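Collaboration report, partner site 2.

Our partner group contributed sequences for two proteins of shared interest, and the home lab folded both. The records are reproduced in the order in which they were received, starting with the first partner submission.
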Amino acid sequence: MKKQLILEDGTIFIGKGFGSDTETIGEVVFNTGMTGYQEIISDPSYCGQIVTLTYPLIGNYGINRDDFESINPAVKGLIVKEAADFPSNWRNEYTLDEYFDMKKIPGIAGIDTRKLTRIIRQYGTLKGAICSIEKDPNEVLEQLRRTPLSTNQVKQVSTKNAYPSPGRGKRVVLVDFGMKHGILRELNHRDCDVVVVPYHTTADEILQLRPDGIMLSNGPGDPKDVPEAIDMLKGVLGRVPLFGICLGHQLFALACGANTEKMKFGHRGSNHPVKDLATGKVAITSQNHGYTVEEESIKNTKLEITHIAVNDGTVEGLKHLDYPAFTVQYHPEASPGPEDANGLFNQFIDMMEKHKQEVTANA
């Protein structure tokens, strides 16, 4: 079953289809991770995007029940050099082809992913379509040009209703902008009493839950498309300790008066070095974002840069100078990826405990 990948600049790749026969349009991005494809395709932050995996062999250990970052993938499609037909792993339950067919997601294999990645690096992310080989490319190009990219991705992937994940430790309200299950897992591992709430939950509704801390999750798209969250953050800052990851980091910056901007092709992979400015230590991190906090915009705020990307110098961490709040652009829950930054969850627990002691002492 041949398929074609058509980019909005007119570039056409011909390959072998797998998964669903449906056609799809999305923003074409690339991820440099060598492993963890199951976590990547189930990461809600890829909502609206067609993901290119630069590692040449994908699907060789199959799909299992345990490594999902969400129940229903939001990715629009997958592009690989080679999709393994016969995975070999004791946990394997489905092939990549079987799983994508079951979830109605199209994929294309057998194309030059190195060439595609170089195009994206040179020109930036592009809209693209995966479709039948019989489809007229000119028709597809016209459709690409008149089809805008979605701006409500967070609404699509956030939980519709609040729900608890009980524990006996600190009460944490986890705001779901497209949460990876790894974040919830790390909080549960520390026995936090977690309440997961939708992206549009107000400051008053969160404070009524009497949290010891607030966690802002990752999520897809442009942070400026989520004004409800910015308003909420202005209402809770300084009242409850706060920890933000990825999109949560960007929303925190906007709420504090900084600005965000779209990157040329973003950071997506599990091998990104990040420097802690306080210690000089470099951690290898997992990342997935197409927007960044504009460094110049931080100067007139109460924010301080705590981490930077070694490769391009972009902002990777912030803390508030007056309030107990810090955020990072990368993923300390590391699914997939290294666990160098996992200690940030312990830092969050310590910050909640310190804040509670200070409140008690001043009561």
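Second partner submission, folded after the first:
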Amino acid sequence: MKTIDVALIGGGIMSATLGALLQRLEPEWSIEVFERLPDVAQESSNPWNNAGTGHAALCELNYTPEGPDGTISPAKAVEINEQFQVSRQLWASLVEDGFLPDPSAFISATPHMSFVWGEANVDYLRRRYEALKDEPLFEGMEFSTDVRVIREWAPLLVPGRRKDQPIAATRITSGTDVDFGALTRLMFAGIERGGARMRTGKEVQGLRRGKDGLWTLRLRDEVGRTPSRVRARFVFVGAGGGALHLLQRSGIPEARGFGGFPITGEFLRTDDPAIVERHLAKVYGKASVGAPPMSVPHLDTRVVDGETSLLFGPYAGFSPKYLKTGSNLDLFTSIRLHNLYPMIRAGLANLGLVSYLAGEVLSTKDKQMEALREFVPNAKASDWRLIQAGQRVQVMKRDAKKGGVLQFGTEIVTGADGTIAGLLGASPGASTAAPIMLTILERCFPDRFAGWRGEVERLVPSFGVRLNDDREVARESMARTAQVLGIDAPRVDAMGAEPEAARASITA
């Protein structure tokens, strides 16, 4: 039986990022990637399956919740932005190294906006702006309640709206749109050139650690169903919704107590040039009561394979599948004695979410259009079509006080001996792939990491420091990555106004 150094399970952005890092840190190591589907980037990393297209907390309101006393802390938003800057630095370094080709294939400059209506929400957004505007990583954020300014920023948001309706928006022009499908494919192509072996159409059905410390992976070809085995010194389980089952089968105690709650997503999409050319931004609003953070409504400019479209959503729903191409038995076969109680407790504590999802499942096209018209009052149903997004699996985990909690975000699970690691959960996910993978390397290879640190700091110059603590350092870092990635060109608003002109007319 063949033995390899690294087995990467799953053909998404996480495995691609870890593979790229390991190949630079240990170029002699043998790496093999196992993906069940015929090609990589077909599940959560597919650009039409995910909404994680440059999450930097510039516009996502769920990262700045309002406290019981009305205060708004910038801490979580700053943390997410710091993580996204690490990803940007890694991508820029890989472009400079020639590992990644023309960055316009996967990233483009796109302003990020928050948009709300109603007096209470306008007041909230004003306080959020005050909490963030002086943070170095949020430099350049603008706020306005002026209808004319907001129409310059995003022309589709205003026409048809009641004139007496209070509205407000923030904008920051340094935002981006990232095609993680393209980036994933380019990264895998890079590590394949470096000697990694891509094994698509190959399902990992189980894994077990032997007494010699090596992991044996049980494999099966999707075509022909031929079984095989391979041994690996280190295993990364980056299989998205399929990760929970594999971590459970691994037998590591660190995976005990975890469950997963699947949520389906759908979006309305238009490719009509007459509509698309009037909107250049990612615009996030506030989530409905009871909605999970991943369901925050947003109207996004998306650039995929060089073509621009608009997406609105997501509309959440329920399916027991853990993957878009998964099985209806996924949820039920993940239940174990050790996670049953945490899952029940988490479910009882989130009955509002269950009620919300039930309403979303029964939602009609008319109801979906009503939600869109809260953003785009003049939207016509004939211009938009519904597309199915990917599955998201929210983590349910054991909690000492509550018995079980529903956790939003990405959970890193590592074995005690450092020979296996995996990821559970969802957003912000893809946008923070680089810092997540660096955390895994620190946890799993503590004896080697000191020797790797020089190369890590070359790839990610801010590694180990907080950019937000030093305004000049933050400016220099963002300027460097913007230039290398080709996202520093002045943007022209959809109606033709230069950002500087719009800033001059702001009424805060």
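Feedback sent to the partner group on the second submission included the following. The domain at 3-459 is CATH 3.50.50.60 (FAD/NAD(P)-binding domain). Residues 106 and 319 are 30 Å apart (CA to CA).
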